[in-house]
Amino acid sequence: MSSAFYITTPIYYVNAKPHLGHTYTTIAADVACRFHRMKDEKTFFLTGTDEHGDKIVKAAESGGMEPKTYADRISALFRELWPEYGISHDRFIRTTDPDHIAVVKQILQKIYDAGDIYFSDYEGLYCFDCERFYTERELVEGKCPDHAKEPVPIRESNYFFKMSSYQQWLIDYIHENPDMIQPERYKNEVLGFLREPLDDLCISRPKTRLEWGITLPFDQNYVTYVWFDALINYISALGYPDGENFKTFWPHVRHIVAKDILKPHGIYWPIMLKSAGIDVYKHLFVHGYWNVDESKMSKSLGNVVDPIYLKNTYGSDAIRYFLMREMTFGLDSSFNEVALIQRINSDLANDLGNLFSRVLAMFHKYFKAIVPQWDPAENPYPEFDLKAAAESTIRDFSTSMDNFEFHKALASVWEYIGTMNKFVDTAAPWELAKQESARQRLAAVICSLLEGLRVVSGLIYPVMPETASTMQKHLGLDQQQPFYLMDEIGKWGVIPPGAELPKGVSLFPRMDPETIFAAPEDKKEKQSNVSAIMPEITMEDFASVDLRAATVISAERVPKTDKLLKLELDLGFERRTVVAGVAEFYTPEELAGKTVVVLANLKPAKLKGVQSQGMLLAGIDNENGSVAVLDRHLPPGTRLK
Ligand code: MSP
Fold it and tell me: Does the Cβ of 11 fall within 6 Å of ligand 1?
């Protein structure tokens, strides 16, 4: 074994169940980790959940639960999802784990003792959704840039972390480690933030306002800011300060995050480490967003794609492949199922699947399942040197994988698959098979194709571990690690002559979009696995939900979106504006005059600039949307219970 490789994902908030965005990051980390195992490195892969803070308290409250009970349930959804996608993490950390809490306190005390935390009176603008103070400079038109809400002025005494003292140090550190933040655009973004004076960071919340957090070791009346708690997971998980894993793996870490959390990772975290006297990490990889129709996929926008539905419909390896192939690491990508089906059919079923079944079928036909004698050193087709092409593919693949350019790594493997497909057509084994004198040549063609497939099976292993294993089984290789080691993959003539190989299989059946999209019932059944019934509530819990009958007076489209309708509703005692995401299913005229059901005591929210005072009850699946309408007359304003 050579060097140590430590990879982390963000720890995900437990205020919502996992969606495709979280799944992408975790798969990317898994792919990188599997690749480094192939390089025979010692690896550690960390993921987990971020469970403290106001966001979680609010989500728990709306589910009528204690924060810990709520966190247990949602954290379990993440933990149970990862095996479905073959995620091979070494630890799943929760910020409620006692060993993590102990380390957070230790670090806080260290930074406090170093004189980098001070107590001060503060009046500032606070965004409850971000759980942090904003400076005027950071606001966009007076609003929080993430939630487009005006922050609330709050005056309180708090503890502050002296980030400002480290500003120049961080700038120098980034220049001394030019590949610390990749891709380059994000390094520039961080350097851009650092061109403005860095404010000190408020790292406490008074318990009078928030109790769900880790108590400051030097003041029992405060809990620490959720980011100060969360970032420390990257070292508490390794058993900081004395654990063997900490000694082995820190600071050889590669953090992967999306661009939404660049600032805490690119600025707070290195400064926290520096102040605590801990080696500062050297690699942060930042990716873009999976969007749906131009908007970031996120729970708050209600456009999330369910990873379990995708796995049940298309299979884990196909989704892993699509996500890694389609997104250029660092840039945004748009998710849509049509593109997914196209890629499965062209890259997986056609290019790879057909090649595999074609070669194995010819092998069985011409050699009766027994690998013939052939001389791998002799190449009767110099213009198609599959061995040399494999070597250069392996080099390109390795470089791209080292740089987290997964799409490029896969593109080079598919280029090689393309070469093999052309080779089959040029060498035309079916013609050679007609001539007894071409027997040697036929053996060389088929066996070098088998070798080429073996190389492919090794290279796709980090992205498609199940497919790699199926291919290896059918190539007569046992499933042991050597066939996946980067140093071994390039060897030629590994499949032993005389071996009997099992018959081929179809690796990827073609997907028919019509069948997939025209089977809503079937699909719903698959989805129902995931949209499990929400946690049990009591009648008292339900009593806090105020549902009212309301008549739609008028409706109109919300500009610049295909999804939203703005409805004017009559609730009997008052009129209200409610925004509903049903524009794809209803014209405004269709809804006018209907008596609908409104969640009337929902906190108002702004959607695409329109203030919505409540929510319409409606059900939406991928093809259909239906608004709940009363089928008998009830006066508007009547409560439904
Ligand atoms: N709890 C913090 C992270 C603390 S790490 C010390 C947090 N949690 S989160 O649940 O909001 O997860 C954010 C991360 O989820 C992103 O950085 C990214 O890894 C992933 N994604 C969430 N939505 C995504 C997309 N739409 N597209 C791509 N990745 C997405 O922030």
Answer: yes
352 Cβ closer than 6 Å to some ligand 1 atom:
no
Query: Residue 176 half-sphere exposure, CB side, CA atoms within 13 Å?
Result: 9
Instruction: Single out the catalytic residue among 147, 149, 263, 387.
Output: 147
Alpha helices in 63-123 (DSSP H): 67-84, 98-113
Residue 335 clears pLDDT 90, i.e. is over it: yes
The answer to whether the Cα torsion of 447, 453, 454, 459 is positive or negative is positive
What does the pLDDT look like over 493-548, one tens digit per residue?
Answer: 999 999 999 998 999 999 988 888 876 544 433 343 334 456 667 787 788 899 99
Is-contact 483 458, C-beta < 8 A?
Answer: yes
Q: What is the pLDDT of residue 531?
A: 46
The amino acid present at 355, given as its one-letter code, is L
Rounded distance, CA 172 to CA 196, Å? 15
C-beta 21 within 6 A of ligand 1 = yes
Establish whether 22 is a catalytic residue. yes
Q: Who contacts 47 (Cβ-Cβ below 8 Å, separation ≥6)?
A: 8, 9, 11, 26, 29, 78, 82, 87, 89, 91, 92, 93
d(CA 382, CA 144): 63
How is 585-627 classified by DSSP, letter by letter?
T--HHHHTT-EEEEETTSPPEEETTEEE-SEE-EEE-SS-EEE
Cα separation, 440 vs 506, in Å, equals 28
Higher pLDDT, 128 or 361: 361
Element holding 206 (H helix, E strand):
strand 204-206
- The SS3 assignment for 394 reads helix
Percent composition of the chain: helix, strand, coil (DSSP 3-state, to 5):
45, 20, 35
Strands (E), 297-389: 333-334
Ligand 1: centre distance to CA 460 (Å): 26
Q: How many Cβ atoms are within 10 Å of 129's Cβ, its own excluded? A: 15
Q: For residue range 426-450, what is the model confidence (pLDDT) as tens digits?
A: 999 999 999 999 999 999 999 999 9
Ligand 1 atom closest to 291 (CA): 26
Q: What is the enclosing helix (H) or strand (E) of 448?
A: helix 439-460
67, 162, 79: which is closest to 114 by C-alpha? 162
The answer to whether the CB of 95 falls within 8 A of the CB of 233 is: yes
Rounded CA separation 200/111 (Å)? 14
* Per-residue model confidence (pLDDT) at position 383: 87
Q: Does 8 have pLDDT greater than 90?
A: yes
CA distances from 91 to 9, 132, 236 (A): 11, 29, 11
Q: Does 18 sit behind a cis peptide bond, omega within 30 degrees of 0 on the bond before it?
A: no
454 touches 386 (CB < 8 A) = no
Asked if residue 137 has pLDDT above 90, the reply is no
Structure tokens at 208: 């009078």
Q: How close is the Cα of 218 to the center of ligand 1, in Å? A: 31
DSSP 63: T
User: What sign does the CA torsion over 319, 324, 326, 329 have?
Assistant: positive
